Amino acid sequence: MQKFIRLFLCLYICLILISCVSDKDSQADPFPETENSEEKQLSRKEIIQLIERTITDTEAEAAEKGVIQPEPKDTKQTEKEKLENVLNFPLPEVKNTREIADFIEKNSKEKLEIPFEAYSGSIEIPDRDLLPFGALVLESYRLAYPDKKMKVYEKEGDWCIELDGMVFAWADGRLLPFSRRVEAENYGKQIIYPNTGKPRNPKTYTQEDIAELMKKGTKAALAAEKPVDNTFSQFLFQTNDRIVTERNIRSMSFLGHRLNVHKMVIPFFEKIDREIKAAAKTDKETAKFVADISEIGGYNWRTIDGTAGRRSYHSYGLAIDIAVKGNKKPTYWEWVRTWNSKWMLVPQSSLWLPPETVIKIFEKYGFVWGGTWDEYDTMHFEYRPELAVLAYLYMADEE
What are the CA-CA distances from residue 88 to residues 48, 81, 121, 123, 388 (Å)? Predict the structure, then answer.
């Protein structure tokens, strides 16, 4: 019996070997032989190109014979249509918004770069037919956080955005839960603006601008300031309270220092870390900046200095402050205000500034630099991708 089994196995193996040789012979090279086949052997890329050409030729031949109808060709395609086609590609084909910046540079009188390139899903451009500012803001949130699958629509005369089953109304800039929109006058407006990445410029301030800025942080201004409703941000970042927030905080190494931030921005900080370190290898200013860092502050459950209780983005783990050794230049408006009533007129060049290379790397991943604000905070970066998207939509809507 054992001899029979061995004989059967030997015959089975022989049949397999014969089959393999036969298959190899039948799978002859589909490409014509040449005198020197080794030199003319096609690469994987060339094989794919050949297959694509074959498919195209076959479709063209079928169209000529009337077997299939050829697709109509666009005779003219505007730059705007090309942009919309690009933006409707899935993420693997559009990894950043450089196409947006290129489009704006070619078609706008004033160059306006949109450096943010941290989209995490397909981009669907909203209807820009004279949408009001509030609708553009809500669309910016929807586009900047595609994984949240938010919906924007009009309801009972107000623009609304739906997030996790909760509906929020624009309410003239308050962004309140829909049921609370009738109480809008009791709340302060959200700080939402198109971020162009341009640094502040005191030379452009009017006397009215200076008068308004001089009121900032005073007892009278703080007493008159209305509370801001943070419910939308709490839903968006899952930061309902300190306990819930700290469940989302993670610790990481950033530019050689320990940093605590929200888990959603860790992938961006990892990329920023790599790019700044790479830049430091060839740029002396960036190298000195990295070497001089004394501390990097991230998550900190607190309100913003000089306000009547506005929550800081540090409270969400979405902002950082970078301090450097030996710095004697001003960095934060509120600190300067304590000894200089004309704090808003301090020239940008007199403030401590991180290298331009570092600023651009942060902006590339959806961060806003505090040096662009009238109430300057030059050591500060916070994750606000919706502001970069808003800058594009706002400009596109005005075209």
Answer: 25, 11, 10, 5, 18
The dihedrals phi and psi of 253, each to the nearest 5 degrees, come to -95, 130
Among residues 121, 58, 56, which one has the least CA distance to residue 93? Answer: 121
Tokens of 284: 């002396």
pLDDT in tens, 88-128: 433 333 333 444 444 444 444 333 334 444 333 334 545 54
Tokens of 70: 């050829």
Report yes or no on whether pTM surpasses 0.90: no
The count of other CB atoms within 10 Å of the CB of residue 283 is 16
In this structure, what is the dihedral angle of CA atoms 350, 202, 377, 234, given to the nearest 10 degrees?
Answer: -170
State mean pLDDT over 296-315. Answer: 82
Beta pairing class for 257-262 and 293-297: unpaired
Where would I find the H helices in 225-354?
231-237, 242-247, 266-280, 284-292, 333-337
Could you tell me if 114 and 97 are in contact, meaning their C-beta atoms sit under 8 angstroms apart?
A: yes
Contact 301, 242 (CB under 8 A): yes
Task: Output phi, psi for 130, to 5 deg.
Answer: 55, 45
DSSP 73: P
Question: In what helix (H) or strand (E) does residue 168 lie, and over which residues does it extend?
Answer: strand 166-169
- C-alpha pair distances (Å), 69 with each of 61, 72, 73, 80, 216: 11, 9, 12, 28, 67
pLDDT of residue 10: 47
CATH architecture of 203-226+241-383: 2-Layer Sandwich (3.30)
Q: Which two tokens stand for residue 140?
A: 């910016």
75-84 contacts, C-beta under 8 A, 24 or more apart: 79/103, 79/106, 79/107, 80/107, 84/125
pLDDT per residue over 248-298, tens digit each? 999 999 999 999 999 999 999 999 999 999 999 999 999 999 999 999 999
> In this predicted structure, what is the pLDDT of residue 263?
94
Domains of the chain, by residue range, sit at: 79-193+391-398, 203-226+241-383
